[in-house]
Amino acid sequence: MRLYTDEIINAVCLHVSERRGIAPTDVEVQLSWDEEYGYTAEIWVAGRSQYLLQANLLEAIEQYLFSQQNLRVFRSDITLGLDEEQGEFWAEFPA
InterPro entries this protein is in (predicted)? Predict the structure, then answer.
């Protein structure tokens, strides 16, 4: 099974909002990939920017799958990827 960009962003928004005690709509997210850091996300909350590393993204996706889709998937089983032609990020995990 796979999640795509929008659901990954939703997972990050929910994860950050739960940790900070704010509304998910108060979080903005931009996903990216580079050779040095791998998959990352830049988030903005109240005008302040912060970067999340791949481990943080996997944690957010793991929690999202559990809380929103009742799936118990461990982060070690989640693979992140990018379709460069379409600019679409994805997270793949066993069904």
Answer: Uncharacterised_YxcD
Rounded Cα–Cα distance for residues 28 and 44 (Å):
5
The helix, strand and coil proportions of the chain, stated in percent and rounded to the nearest 5, come to 40, 35, 25
The confidence band for 36, taking pLDDT boundaries of 50, 70 and 90, is: very high
Is 89 within 8 Å of 79 (Cβ atoms)? no
Q: Taking the CA atoms of the chain, what radius of gyration do you get in angstroms?
A: 13
pTM over the 0.70 mark: yes
Hey, what are 83's tokens? 């379709």
Answer whether 51's CB lies under 8 Å from 40's CB.
yes
What is the number of domains present in the chain? 1
Enclosing domain of residue 57: 2-92
Cross-strand partners of 50: 43
